[in-house]
Amino acid sequence: MISTCKPMSLMRKLLLVYNPKSGVQRFQNQLFNVIETFTSAGFFVTTYPTQASGDIGKIVAEHISEFDYLVCSGGDGTINEAINALMPLEKRPMFGIIPSGTVNDFAASLNIPKDIVKAAEIITTATPKALDVGHFAGRHFSYVAAFGMFTDVSYTTPQNVKNLLGKLAYFLEGIKRLAAIESIPCEFMLDDELIRGDFHIGVIGNAHSIAGFRLPNEMKVQMDDGFFDVILIQKQNTLKDRQDVITSLLTQDVKTDLLTIRKAKKITFTSNEPIAWTLDGDFGGTHTTAKIENLYHALEVLIP
């Protein structure tokens, strides 16, 4: 639907890109209402449903100069693809997010509502806020780079299972792997601090929510302070070790040498064997070494 309230030359041009396979595919049910919300606010809207991975990069590279706004709807992987398309641009459009994935960690950390129409309404009136962006071995990520136990669950769990079971799908997939947990010997240079160990999990995050779980308030996570929040969990040999790590991570009432929590701007990861990483829930490749850098205030996002 095209609003006739203003001449087209005066209307703000908005490209709405959405992943039709994301989440429970609920965005399509609200598509008309989203377009109505934008056109009523004075936008001229063009919609594009993605057909395959990489589509957002292509459409941004070829056509984004024609638009004032880019709005993406999907899960964390869709938002990651959009950010990777936007970062190389010298002049970027206003960037808005409508969460419609299974977990939506990045949007949840920014307090963007799950209600699709409400998220669209926020974009029409919000002012942009500068956020940090992660850079990992030539790629960008919005909120997390991770390796180890369960971190590949998002991109190895079939989409139809995610759609049916939601967050529960991640737990079920993780439980199936408990018998095959292996630690990963590697080292991290966190700014000027060297940490070595055999790790079950390594998380380099920039979000209040990771894998659907809110991080403890004690960690004082900020998405615009120029620092990553680094969580490294070493191999646990006993049930008590595991319980101590869980309690320390959730409450910080118990101290254990198996859990390392730090803040860092620049990180270098090194291992003897190639390790699979996930970036914002999608496969980030296998690496024996990687440099990870926090790009301070690198991207402006329209948020509440």
Any overview of this molecule?
Strands 5, 6, 7, 8, 9, 12, 13, 14 and 15 form a 9-stranded antiparallel beta sheet that branches. Strands 2-1-3-4 form a 4-stranded parallel beta sheet, with helices on both faces. It has helices spanning 31-40, 55-63, 76-86, 105-109, 116-125, 153-156, 159-165, 168-176, 239-251; strands at residues 12-18, 43-49, 69-74, 94-99, 128-136, 139-141, 144-148, 184-190, 193-205, 209-210, 213-214, 228-234, 259-264, 266-279, 282-302. The chain is of the alpha+beta class and 304 residues long. The radius of gyration is 20 Å and the shape is elongated. It has 9 helices and 15 strands. The longest helix has 13 residues, at 239-251. Helix 1 packs parallel to helix 5 (116-125). It folds into 2 domains: 8-126, Probable inorganic polyphosphate/atp-NAD kinase, domain 1 (Rossmann fold, 3-Layer(aba) Sandwich), CATH 3.40.50.10330; 139-296, Tumour Suppressor Smad4 (Sandwich), CATH 2.60.200.40.
Write the layout of secondary structure elements.
Blueprint: E1 12-18, H1 31-40, E2 43-49, H2 55-63, E3 69-74, H3 76-86, E4 94-99, H4 105-109, H5 116-125, E5 128-136, E6 139-141, E7 144-148, H6 153-156, H7 159-165, H8 168-176, E8 184-190, E9 193-205, E10 209-210, E11 213-214, E12 228-234, H9 239-251, E13 259-264, E14 266-279, E15 282-302
Parallel strand pairs: 1-2, 1-3, 3-4
Antiparallel strand pairs: 5-6, 5-15, 7-9, 7-14, 8-9, 8-14, 9-12, 10-11, 12-13, 14-15
Helix pairs in contact: 1-5, 2-3
